[in-house]
Amino acid sequence: MFIEENYVLLSHNTFGVVAKARWFIAYTDEQDLRKILADEYFRSLPVFHIGGGSNLLFISDYEGIILHSGIKDTEVVKEDEEFVYLKAGAGMLWDDLVHDTVCRAWGGLENLSGIPGEVGAAAIQNIGAYGCEAKDVITEISAYDMQTGEKQTIPCVECAYAYRDSIFKKAWKGRFIITHVTFRLSKKPHYRLEYANLQNFFAGKEINLKMIRETIIALRAAKLPDPKVLGNAGSFFMNPCLSKTCYERLKKSYPDMPCYPVNQGEVKIPAAWLIEQCGLKGFQQGNAAVYDKQALVLVNKGNATGEEIVRLAEKVQESVKNKFRIDLHPEVIYLP
Q1: Residue 213 annotated as catalytic
Q2: Is CATH 3.90.78.10 the right assignment for the domain spanning 231-335?
Q3: What are phi and psi of 117, to 5 degrees?
Q4: How far apart are CA 230 and CA 284, in angstroms?
Q5: pTM of this prediction?
Q6: Which pLDDT tens digits describe the chain residue by residue (336 residues)?
């Protein structure tokens, strides 16, 4: 276990924002975690558990305890002719897990290649890309209840998964610490190529998991900046959902407005398109900017504070609201 006071969190947030934690604790196994949860001093302070910091924005120093998992083990807990059930530690890098499953020819995670962060956070956030979401393959969550210190197994159906959302972000926010996530992966992969750019690329070609992974990584690299070069947290805003009635009304004024069906009554509008229509692609305010290659991404142009990035986000939200009467909601978590 690693414990340090007044710990600088620069390496724990991909925005590259300078902030400190009153205490930082990194644990490597469940035994250490149980000790932490039983500690009276620990229980007296605010606590926030982070993953890879790829979906966080520190607005100021955190006057409490930042926890981080170092649990990175994997285990096949069950398998049959069609599926493998793989249990992965919450502290494992998400893309390391995807790489491992693709190398073993187990399908299910390949469309989520190249996404930063860690396994536990991916399950909380219900990460998604190219027509797939984490919830599609998660079967259960292993977690400790911070209120009781007891370990629980939570089936996927109880996680209330939705678009970039779960019960861990709402009713159970801050209550559970995830230690492992179990995935059901296919030995006979069914390729998900609904997105036009994937369909076009693979048209007439023989397809395998490795090709899909490499293609998606290349697509992401072409439109998303490397956080090591330009601080960012990937997609900053969620794509808003509108009723079809509202969409048809807006489409009369904006005939080129794209959409993706959600269900019979709703469609999803690309937030990037809305931001571009407001003329904000490449817009810079102080040391923060809207990325010039992908308007959904806000970037740290150098020494930006969390407050500067929040002010830019508010500028974007206000502009979209004024032009389209649509509310944009951050996908990124503000802390504190």
Answers
A1: no
A2: yes
A3: 105, -170
A4: 14
A5: 0.92
A6: 999 999 999 999 999 999 999 999 999 999 999 999 999 998 899 999 999 999 999 999 999 999 999 999 999 999 999 999 999 999 999 999 999 999 999 999 999 999 999 999 999 999 999 989 999 999 999 999 998 999 999 999 999 999 999 999 999 999 999 999 999 999 998 899 888 778 888 887 889 999 999 999 999 998 899 999 999 999 999 999 999 999 999 999 999 999 988 889 999 999 999 999 999 999 999 999 999 999 999 999 999 999 999 999 999 999 999 999 999 999 999 998
Q: What is the CATH code for 74-186? A: 3.30.465.10
Does residue 235 carry a catalytic annotation?
yes
Residue of 206, 220, 186, 178 lying closest to 101 (CA atoms): 186
Phi, psi (rounded to 5 degrees) for 124: -70, -45
Radius of gyration, CA atoms only, the chain: 20
Which is the catalytic residue, given 113, 166, 235, 319? 235
Domain boundaries, the chain: 2-69, 74-186, 231-335
Helix (H) or strand (E) holding 290: strand 288-290
Q: Catalytic pick from 22, 34, 43, 164?
A: 164
Catalytic residue flag (residue 331): yes
Pairing mode of beta strands 47-50, 62-69: parallel
Helix H or strand E encompassing 260 = strand 260-261
SS3 9: coil
